[in-house]
Amino acid sequence: MMLYKFEEVLNDLMDYFILGDVDCLMQYKIENDLPDDLLTEFTTEETGDQVVQEGIMVPMIGVENHPYTIYFNLSDETPELLKPENQLQHKQDGYCLTVVNGRIYLYTIPYLRDFTKGTVDLLKKYKHASIELPNGFYNVSILAGLTKQSTEIKTVSGEIKKIEDMEPTFEFLIKPSIERPNFTADFTYPFRVELL
């Protein structure tokens, strides 16, 4: 499969999403003897910039508190957010991603406050937007905006009705790279999706 879709993904009331291989982050934490509170570490020391530039995590700020539709797009087809019925609001290129344990997750800031084996196990167990990816390096572009989504509801009479609505969406365009790509993105860029 080249296009993966997840619905109703929440940002845990924080204006942040993080994309990455959590095992890669744990390995980095152990190798560099970092504290369990990675949130404080990354916001007060230069290690935060370093993990982003090395592709250990892709941070996204300015994320409004909505349920999101999430796409992981590994195909060469037209991205969902670039299709005519949808509305692209943001596009940022130049992110890199390092995968060491065959899986990436879209997770939230609270996990960084106590980044222990137990926390990582909980993150993996909880139903997050996550896909398998072969180990290696990847170029990542992030698209954000609104996509047309349809929902089926059952009326009082038992009839099934289909409702279409524009939903806040993030789409990650993920392309393999032989070497670790240079990080050229602006990680202070706010991904605020405006509702129509």
Question: What's the short version?
Answer:
This protein is α+β, with helices and mostly antiparallel strands. The chain is built from 5 helices and 9 strands, in the order ββαααββββααβββ.
Index terms:
single chain, 196 residues, alpha+beta, 5-stranded mixed β-sheet, 4-stranded antiparallel β-sheet, 19% helix, globular
Would you kindly provide a written description of the structure presented here, covering whatever features stand out?
With 196 residues, the protein is α+β, with helices and mostly antiparallel strands. Helices cover 19% and strands 41% of the residues. The strands form two sheets. A five-stranded mixed sheet has the order 1-4-9-8-5, with no helix packed on it. It has a four-stranded antiparallel sheet with strand order 3-2-6-7, covered by helices on one side. Strand 8 and strand 9 form a beta hairpin. The longest helix has 10 residues.
